[in-house]
């Protein structure tokens, strides 16, 4: 799987496909997009080849240099090394672990880090190591974030998933994880600010509630959007029922976003994502 | 069709159903809801009876008096007298007029009022009177609103539909039409303030765009929500394409809201609507 | 929670609500439907009362006798005693067990019966007893079905869920479980008969695949429909991917159907279901 | 816009992109798909170039010859010459004509042919010529089909849309229009054969009804599927209401299929369609 980003211009596809032919490869899937907003060109290619990785890299080298490409070459289906951050809510973590084991999500989760102990058994059932480190003040928060960074280094983590981790990350950690941390939050039409949005949504009688998966940035809940879903509700739903419905949307939206990321389908174009579905 | 709202308490259903039995009627459809938020009770009953309207009203009179009910008795399927306000956009007006003629929308539209002349032919094709009165300053705006109020009186209008009417109504007109004027606007996840929201939605790469139909209040775009829809979009859509997609959602959302209102399915519970689908 | 079915006629609502008033109760939620197809009347009432169950039953007794009602009185939120039948597929069982524990599904599952041992650990993690009895011939099949009937008796089972149980039930077992066994199967537009429907769906290039939850009858896959869902797919999906997508729809559709059944929202009207959502 | 189909093999993308570079063009959008089922390769390219069409064709000529490509070169946004066949139902015709005029559907409709006169005014309002030729027996049916073929020739028709045209086309006409005629029909889960499927759907209590747009083949309602949609219904809907709901799905599904076809997004792969959305 080859993904690449560069400044748009003529001849890119020809140059890339020439390198693939030269390495004895065949392009089996290809998607591209030229952004009018940023003038950048995005491409995702699935290549079938018997050649060694080095041969393909050598063929590509002059092309990526000439176009100053930001590129990434990966083996299709390789599980992405993924760190999960959690608090007490089980729904997102359960969905990810179940799908990992069932082979429905191409990730390898070497560790779940939580600020609570309540999901220990769930992780244990799926054979995933679990650590709980309470976060109660600035010092314990800093310690938790240091543990995250150490885990990222130790396990060569490629993606950090905030599976309803209920702490705000420091700007430093956001910066360190830029482009490789995904968060999930509820979404409403219209949006609600402040505490207890489900209660506000109930009070306004909204007819749709949903969830948004997005990249983590220091601007809370405002990172580039990866995936969104909504579901229909009506006036008879209590705030507690809205929460339960919203959690289902959170699980499936987060899992979908992680799957696309793990399949190299998510590319960043400034504040937007390009999703090659 | 009988709809009623009163303070919740024991015996309401029994009292109402007793009055129906007394008038020789049969309840063929019934929906009710007790609001925990406001302590009010809402009911919608479809009654089959050979008795004259007066007989049923006489039987109901002591009940509605005893419970201090806000009530409404209507003939099922009677077309609602509906005034349409429009500007230049044709999509919502076309959908309403086509459905009116096809018998899919139980409304009678005696007049379309617009601040532009561009939809005159469309209204003419459907045989609906049309008047254009330009709104260019405070005086012409006041004149337009006076024309609205006169039309409401002349035609005994029961519902005013703002079918992409692009002028803000004065607080006085909002108050005069309270609970019987429906507006449509686009909706996004997350919401965007300010001019050209489709451009903002494009810039943020939103994955869902939609529309909200709501009652008009003086608090612009914040009236009680009647219906919402969304549709999925992706990064390849230009702002112009987002507009076209959003317009389809606007048409079908507005038409749905009008249909429910005309069928007496929409009741107000403070800032929320109860929709008896 | 009171549900009732009887021949439609005047005065039913009045009689029932009178009994409720007499027992000092208050109707907090009510839904009804009169079937033009079968002439039957269906009602679901949520009643709030401080009176003992016996008091309410005594007040209702003359009414239900007079109208020859098929009725059921239940406590709201009481977990339904549910037996799960499974084979090797984990997705539906996992979803039910997770939701049971999370309090999202009002069921109590005292036992999972399977014709394979592969889900033993999953049941064990959720603390649910599990038995595997291989079904390889007529004798072992009869033994399995006897075990089902004994389990239904021992645990006073109210609902049997076929959570991708891949054996056809005998007509005798279907009859014994009539109206209290729910099955799930995939659904396509158009439908496909015969083996490997996902492969056929791929070959025809269908754009929507889904799932249907229905009551078990001896007419395989043709029982009254409780719930259906579909999801959009495109030409790039392999048959294996269609299977994975279909399984997600199966889980959520089955869980939804079970939830409605457990909440007394599913009533039978001949070959159709009335769903009081 | 360049679309092409050929036997899959190495070097195709490189060869095509080389021809584009040679003609001074730039690829602004590109989608491809290699079918495992048929071994064919499909591609759709949007090319920006100042060169004359002949220059691009000359550059492509050796490539398309070498790979024995089935190809098509078109100008983006050019309205497709489209013949509409209709009977009495207005919903699909109205939607197409409204969108054509609003610039939302890139088609030019020079003629509506119908076996009834009832849509004459609708076509007239949109300024589209209309002819009615009753079809009452074999001779008048043959005459109608001859008129279709003459109209196809006279207006150089590229697409024939059966907008609820309620006559079965002869195998000869199906063959003559192969790959360029689109039909719409209702769809249900499960499917129903025979007359009045909405009545059957009501009797079975289906929860989803929808529509399928497909290419016309002599195998009635079984041509390659282009687009499908469904919408949720419940037990309270009468057969007549199901029809009205189904018609909305028919309109939007047919219009979507026509739009994709007009944008060269629909390619045939045996019994399946490849849709480059």
UniProtKB/TrEMBL annotation, chains A, B, C, D:
Xref: PANTHER family: FORMYLTETRAHYDROFOLATE DEFORMYLASE, FORMYLTETRAHYDROFOLATE DEFORMYLASE 2, MITOCHONDRIAL
CDD domains: ACT_F4HF-DF (cd04875)
Protein name according to UniProt: Formyltetrahydrofolate deformylase
Alphabetical UniProt keywords: Hydrolase, One-carbon metabolism, Purine biosynthesis
Known pathway: Purine metabolism; IMP biosynthesis via de novo pathway; formate from 10-formyl-5,6,7,8-tetrahydrofolate: step 1/1
Organism: Microterricola viridarii
One Gene Ontology term from the biological process aspect of the record: 'de novo' IMP biosynthetic process
Entry annotation: catalytic residues: 221
Gene Ontology molecular function: any one: formyltetrahydrofolate deformylase activity
Family assignment from sequence similarity: Belongs to the PurU family.
Ranges of residues in domain ACT: 1-78
Database matches in InterPro entries: ACT-like_dom_sf (IPR045865), ACT_dom (IPR002912), Formyl_transf_N (IPR002376), Formyl_transf_N_sf (IPR036477), PurU (IPR004810), PurU_ACT (IPR044074)
Segments passing through the bilayer: none
Catalytic activity reported: (6R)-10-formyltetrahydrofolate + H2O = (6S)-5,6,7,8-tetrahydrofolate + formate + H(+)
């Amino acid at each position: 799987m080859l993904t690449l980003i560069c400044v748009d211009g003529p001849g890119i596809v020809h140059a890339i496909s020439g390198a693939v032919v030269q390495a004895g490869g065949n392009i089996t899937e290809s998607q591209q997009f030229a952004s009018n907003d940023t003038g950048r060109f995005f491409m995702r290619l699935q290549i079938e080849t018997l050649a060694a990785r080095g041969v393909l890299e050598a063929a590509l080298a002059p092309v990526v240099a000439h176009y100053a490409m930001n590129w990434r070459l990966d083996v299709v289906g390789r599980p992405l090394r993924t760190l999960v951050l959690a608090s007490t809510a089980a729904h997102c973590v359960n969905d990810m672990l179940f799908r990992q084991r069932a082979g429905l999500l191409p990730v390898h989760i070497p560790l779940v880090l939580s600020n609570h102990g309540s999901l220990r058994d769930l992780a244990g059932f799926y054979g995933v190591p679990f650590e709980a480190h309470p976060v109660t003040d600035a010092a314990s928060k800093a310690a938790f974030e240091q543990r995250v960074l150490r885990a990222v280094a130790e396990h060569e983590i490629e993606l950090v998933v905030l599976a309803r981790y209920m702490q705000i990350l420091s700007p430093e950690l956001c910066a360190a994880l830029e482009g490789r941390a995904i968060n999930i939050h509820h979404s409403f039409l219209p949006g609600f600010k402040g505490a207890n949005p489900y209660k506000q949504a109930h009070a306004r009688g909204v007819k749709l509630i949903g969830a948004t998966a997005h990249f983590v940035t220091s601007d809370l809940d405002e990172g580039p959007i990866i995936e969104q879903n909504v579901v229909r509700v009506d006036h008879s739903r209590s705030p507690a029922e809205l929460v339960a419905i919203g959690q289902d949307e959170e699980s499936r939206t987060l899992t979908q976003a992680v799957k696309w990321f793990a399949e190299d389908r998510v590319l960043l174009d400034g504040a937007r994502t390009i999703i090659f579905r």
